[in-house]
Amino acid sequence: MSAAAPALELHDVTVAYGRRPVLWNVDLSVDAPGLFGIIGPNGAGKSTLLKAALGLVPLAGGTVRFFGRPLAEVRGRIGYVPQRETVDWDFPVSVLDVVLMGTYGGLGWFRRPGAAQREAARAALDRVGLADLAGRQIGRLSGGQQQRVFLARALVQAADLYLLDEPLAGVDARSQDRIFRVLDELRSEGRLVVVVHHDLRTAAEWFDGVALVDMRLVAAGPVAAVLTPENLHRTYAGHLDVLDELGRAVERGGRTS
Amino acid sequence: MIFETSKRVPQTAPWPRWRRTWLGAVVAGLAVLTGPWAAAAERPRVVATTTVVADLVRQVAGDRVAVDPLMGPGIDPHGYKATPRDADRLARADLVVASGLRLEGKLGELLGRLGTRGRVLAVAETLPTDRLIEVAPGLYDPHVWFDARLWSLCPPAVAEALGAIDPAAAVAHRTRAAALVERLERLDDEVRGRLASIPAERRVLVTAHDAFRYFGRAYGIEVVGVQGTSTESEAGLADINRLVDLIVARGLPAVFVETSVADRNVQALQEGARARGQPVALGGRLHSDSLGGPGSGAETLEEALRSNVETIFAGLTGGR
Amino acid sequence: MSQPAGIPYNTLVVAAAVAAVGFAAGVIGSFGVLRRRALVSDAAAHATLAGVVAAFLATGRRDLPTLLAGAFAAAVLALGGLVVIRRFTRTRDDAATAIVLGVSFGLGIALLAGISARGIPGAGGLEHFLLGHTAALTAGDATALAAAAALAVLIVWLGLKEATLVAFDPAFAAATGWPVALIDYALVTLMAAMVVVGLPAAGAVLVTALVVIPPVTARLWTERVATMVPLAGAIGLVAAVGGVATSNAVPRLPTGPTIVLVAAGVFSLSFFVAPRRGWFARRRAAVDAARALAERLRAAAAGEQTAPDPRGA
Lengths: 257, 320, 313
Description:
The structure holds three protein chains of three kinds.
Chain A: E1 8-17, E2 20-30, E3 34-39, H1 46-53, E4 61-66, H2 71-74, E5 78-81, H3 95-107, H4 115-127, H5 143-156, E6 161-165, H6 173-188, E7 192-197, H7 200-206, E8 209-214, E9 216-222, H8 223-226, H9 229-236, H10 243-256
Parallel strand pairs in A: 3-7, 3-8, 5-6, 6-7
Antiparallel strand pairs in A: 1-2, 1-4, 8-9
Chain B: H1 17-34, H2 38-42, E1 45-48, H3 51-61, E2 66-69, H4 84-92, E3 95-98, H5 108-115, E4 120-122, E5 134-136, E6 139-140, H6 148-151, H7 154-165, H8 170-196, E7 204-207, H9 213-219, E8 222-225, H10 237-250, E9 254-258, H11 264-275, E10 281-286, H12 301-317
Parallel strand pairs in B: 1-2, 1-3, 3-4, 7-8, 9-10
Antiparallel strand pairs in B: 5-6
Helix pairs in contact in B: 3-7, 7-8, 8-12, 10-11
Chain C: H1 9-34, H2 38-59, H3 64-89, H4 93-118, H5 128-131, H6 139-158, H7 160-168, H8 170-175, H9 180-221, H10 225-249, H11 255-273, H12 279-306
Helix pairs in contact in C: 1-6, 1-9, 1-10, 2-3, 2-4, 2-9, 3-4, 3-9, 6-9, 9-10, 9-11, 10-11
């Protein structure tokens, strides 16, 4: 029954911080499998969209469903990678400790991770190419390595739907390749990966589908249909800082269409 | 000394005339407004800091003055903090009688400043310094009142200060002061006789703080306080252990608590002594820095001293 | 009753009590420091004074359990006030903490002064809760304090996984279904309890030092939470017992401030000699890095000299 329902479905979602609305009436439905990008200018509410879907910020209105069900019933099928800057990397935990946190949801109250969880965590670390850094304190990693640790933690969750918040921000080229290879694998395993992303140039090559967001949903669907000059103008109007980038993107969009 | 101004007591008040007139007008106005209390307002108002000093003033003045005690029974004068209302009472008094020698720790500074305007008599500071116990250079133990003979030197000074603000009553004050001196001298003999009947090796008084040194010196009792002369200083563990050693070594049957001082230290003492096979009783509450309230049987200094002596006698002779 | 020769009974009682309190303070303080709630514990600590005085006024008793129950109620109330101020007035964290700390401490001092001015008899000794007063602890007090400390440590040990997760990454914890607010409240309540248990040892003004200094010191020595927590406990214990021993040796030296000073001493020492995070280690690392860089530059310069410059031609 849930096979028929979309993996992620937002209906009329509105979010406000205090009295200031940051997202208006977003309707979005994304099916598995696939790599789906959420794109828009700074402050457009992209991260808020993910957080609202996960219940981390309260909804002022609307509903969110995963696989046709409310979040609480399917939490185990959803993996999350928060923005890297939201945590203190000087925290006294090792790489393996952080990855093990991905198993906590399945363990429940007061049970400690055992050999099976450790095994899974090491496998996830291996998948992101950090197997030999398992014992290192997380502050002694590069930005890209830290991002891969977060990805490994989400992989341990063995989810069907992954929500990643800016996983490529401040990441070196090697880490970026590695991360995309893993995301690509996840897609080929039949999962849905939703990525908040800010770089228009790479968006067109990597994602199957995208949503353009600027406090409202401007457009959503296959890349070719959404990244049109007209939609981009509507999304980035008023954002002078990206006009230059926009120009190049429009040019390329014009060429490919 | 803090209360330098006490030396000026016999002089006339250094209040400016305009201020007295102004105050007089206010008092007169109040008298009209308050009607029945007018009589009370006409008597000189004397603020006394502690209950002990208030008793002294009452004994000397009878009902010729209105005595306004600043601290009630059971209040620890060392830690007393004046409220703005207190400052007002002090400022409006015809005479302030304090104990002095830094007994009123935090009040002292205020009294010192006040002394430049009104009159302040610090009774303990009128005593000859060679009769005082020096605890540090220039610093004297202020707990002078439980040596009845020493305390008997104070009433004349009070009578003199009261006579200065109300010359018409000067003779009456002097007469009452002389009677009090005589009573205190008799009391002194009585106390000495009573305590002398305690076996000499048991004449040790262990209390929460060092308020009984003059008492001990006068009546041949060794006095040991857990906390030092002022309740403000903190008892360390070393002090507790030292006292437990003493209790065990001397086989003391009782230790005493005071009405105005925390008894937690004394409880720790008892427990420590019990652990070493020396059960020690709580000898009862002694009046130290504060007299008792109405109906306590220790409302006056004389009653309080008698009550203390009976408590100590019972504690150190009874039990076994 | 038996006791080791040479150590007085009262010293044993006090040492046992402060050892338990010091250990628990270090353990629970670890999460306060990691969750960046150190100042919150300070607000709770300052509020306890009002609770102590209020408990005395309400019951007329001044035995330790009664007074500490009042202190705990006041600490929880202060923390509740903190939450309310933050949520409904959008005041920033530090400002809200300062408000609660100032107001509650002011209330405590006013009540204390009010008691001595109003002439409520038997109030003597309450001011000891300002700076702590270990010397007078009895065996009953020590048992109660040790039991409370043991319970607090047990709870933290049980919830070590949950507490670490919430302290490190609350967003991820919430996304994976953990009740972050509940765990946070539990931790903060434990901190309040710890502050109260530490009150007889260090007093309202100093107890925060007992909760904060050992974890910060332990952090210098280790990179793992699982090591840091017991280490912080051990440092707290050593500081507490060391403080009592010092106070025992020197007459008229108050115990609470001595404990805090010993803890500060351990911290200062650690600050210099700790591996990796210590001052000497960092300096050595910096020197090594500079030397390595110089070596590389020298090698590069040498290579340039020997190899003929292709662009020169």
